[in-house]
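Re: export button greyed out
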Amino acid sequence: MFRYIIRRLISAVLVMFAISVMVFLIFFATPGVNPAARIAGRSASPEVLRHVSIEFGLDKPLPIRYLIMMYHLFIKQDLTSYVNIGYKIIPQIIAAAPITLSLVFGAALIWLVVGIFGGMIAASNRGKFIDPLIMFLGIATISIPAYWLGEMVNLLTQDKLHASLFPWLPNGGYVAITSNPWEWALHLLFPWLTLAALYSGIYARVLRGELINAMNEDYIRTARAKGLSERRILYRHALRCSLITIVSLFGLDFGALIGGAALLTEVVFGLQGVGWLTYQGLTNLDLPLIMGCVMYGAFFVVLASAVVDILYAYLDPRVRIVT
Amino acid sequence: MSDDVLLRATDIVKSYSSRTKNLGQRTPNRAVNGVSLDIRRGETLGIVGESGCGKSTLARCIVQLLPVTSGSVQFNGVELTGLSRRQLRPHRRQMQLVFQDPYASLNPRRTVGDIVGDPMRINRVASHDDINDRVRDLFVTVGLDPNSLRRYPHEFSGGQRQRIGIARSLSLNPSLVVADEPVSALDVSVQAQVLNLMADLQERFNLTYLFIAHDLGVVRHVSDRVGVMYLGEIVELGDAEALYDTPLHPYTEALLSVVPELNDTDAPRRERILISGDVPDPSDRPSGCSFHPRCPVATEICTTQKPEFVELRPGRMVACHHPRNLDAAPLTVPPPTPPVA
Amino acid sequence: MRDLKVSFATRQGVVRAVDGLSFDVGPKEVLGIVGESGSGKSVAMYSILGLVRDANVEISGSVKFQGREILGLSDKEMQSVRGGEVGMIFQDPMTALTPVYTVGWQLVEQLRAHNDMTKQEARERARELLAEVGIPDPKSRLHHYPHEFSGGMRQRVVIAMALSCNPKLLIADEPTTALDVTTQAQILDLMERLQERHGSSIVIITHDMGVIAEIADRVIVMYAGRPAEIGPELDVVRSPRHPYTWGLLGAVPRADVKNRRLVTIPGNAVSPLAVPEGCAFAARCPHKMAICDERPPLRGAHQHLDACWLTDEQRLAIRSVATTRGES
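Workaround output, generated via the alternate export path:
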């Protein structure tokens, strides 16, 4: 098991390296474009362009340019934005990361609980009224775009009903958990619910499908023949095997969200997390910022999938031998 | 090589490398470990063995669907190993396969008429109209309604699908048909229909069969000669009747003794010889004779020295240090009947 | 068991999977149920234990187990029957165990579901059970996962599980079909020895007449959900009465008998959607008569019953012709 973990982590590092090379190539080595102009952003002056050229070694061969870029990104951490002159990318991301982490952790907790319970209730009540009801709610939350739901929530809680129902709700923004945990939770409550809505629906539906498949397996028949209660069969046998799918799904979703995929929710609620930062980079065509965000996002996706694989091996003993 | 030998395989080895738990270390996994056999024209050679003994791998090596690791396969006197795909083509036509699973071995999105005609189209042996006529003929030959050419495989039962598979294998007029567990997925009444059909076709088209199965009854029923495989090796090979009556290898003897019998006669039942344990993993092959850890008569020599595959009786090859039943039937028994041509 | 009927309502119509099956299993008796796929042999046994979970299923008849009616018991009451008084062994040992738990865990789970045992006691008993079914080194094997066992060993684990609560009746559904012949022999041998020791009755479901001949005392031959022939094993194998049984026995290629042309049953098994009112086998029967449009009753003498309209004289004539032809 230990050896398996080490091996998985080594391969994660290799994947990270490959991603960094690819990102670098896409952004700075696409033929036909002047990389200096890209880095410097729109309407940069000739001096700025020259400065960029020297700083990033644009006259040097590709591998050297890659090394210089990575040196600025990771070791010196002084990659600066040329659009908002003076902003250093890495410290910005580091400042934004806790906001995103808070948002995603809270939402993940909610959607896991709601999704797993929803899926289980639906699966064990097949053919009754409650199953299609849960499935309908699921498809509804999946179909509602996060930005629309977020705006609606904002409209209601901050404007229309703010005076009557939600006077206790702060006016958006973010408070660090270290300074005031209660305010932290209060500020994030509706962002959490908004983000969790979509994923609750997906997870409930996926788990229901998995459970229903599992309940048709031979080992469930064996469990019944053993005289176990339906409850025990569902919880201990079917759920345990279905969780394997949920874990892999969760790892990817979670990694992607931490990596900035909660962009819409962050923008709608004015949370200045990594997604919001990416959004800023995109609207301003601030290439160094975008690249920093992409690398940061990739890091979490790769890390999460490594963690998933290790969890997998824990949940499913068969994986431990294979590979 | 004498004329009546259609295919001669000499010391075929097929090994896969598999990773073990130790990081990166590879051990060769010999699925087929030095098999030599002749297939004579017009005969049915049966290969019987338990799952994992390498019988299917052997079949695929013989028809060159899998490249052999070492050894040679001569077909009609031509060495097949080492030929390029293009060079193989004319020989491949002569060797056709019938597969085990009639559900998985037919493309579900093509009509059965196309499936049966495909080999002819691919090898460009006839014009479009000729192919259609021939497909209809083949359908009649294997006992299917030629008006069902435009239907899809799922519209047929398991037995009918196996007939389609057989029709496909016959479409290029092969001389050798390799059937890999052709009836093991079928119910017994349907199995009998397919076996009878195969026997009729053999007579009619002068086919040679290499018939692979795990069912000892089926193999005896169809075969002129039988080879018994254990862990990638043929441990005994000989005339079917003689081999079933007086097995010489202890594995053959045990295998035959445990086949459930219908006690519909008063003849005493063969005494059951239960061999303990499971077939070992081919990557962890025992020293000496591969069978010795499970063999009831194994001695010291079996653990250290691999027995030679020798002809103990006319036409009977055995690889064992302590062959059984040698005195049970004297050597004066009539020699094995030559294969029916 | 009396007049068991199981039917499924499907979009294509009503599938009569089991249509009027009655039999008794005595104490310590081994009853074999033989039939081809789709003959309803497995469905019959699953349905009496409430293992057929289909909203569209309809089960009728009466099943008395030790004098108690068990058809229509509530799920709760059924749970103590299943695994407690009736053990089950399934066809495919590869998929019959939950892959994510050790075999020890799964054995302990069953033991504790039916007995008032501490974990330690159950663990100890589980170890004994593994030893009893011939698994070497049972103590450490308790901690292994199903995928770490070979097929034969897994089937032993399933048997240990089925026997764990000393059931009065063991239902084995194709217990050796997925196994190699040497492993099959080991498992059949094991089942025989265990049955002697525990004194439970066994119902063994299989398509293999040979397996029946090895182990069963009495046989039921099923065709299209109906019993075609019931009788003591030796009688059915040596002097089969129903034309379907003739075909079934004649179609088996044998390792102990010289080559002969196999008897075939023309056509394919009837679709369970369209089982005729009369004899279900009539359409494939070479000896069909006019009366076969009526459903033949199950009748006979000396415990050897069959459902066929042929008279004894007719059967004798047909059989003697068949035998001479077979020998020529």
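The radius of gyration of chain A is 24 Å. The button fix ships in the next patch.
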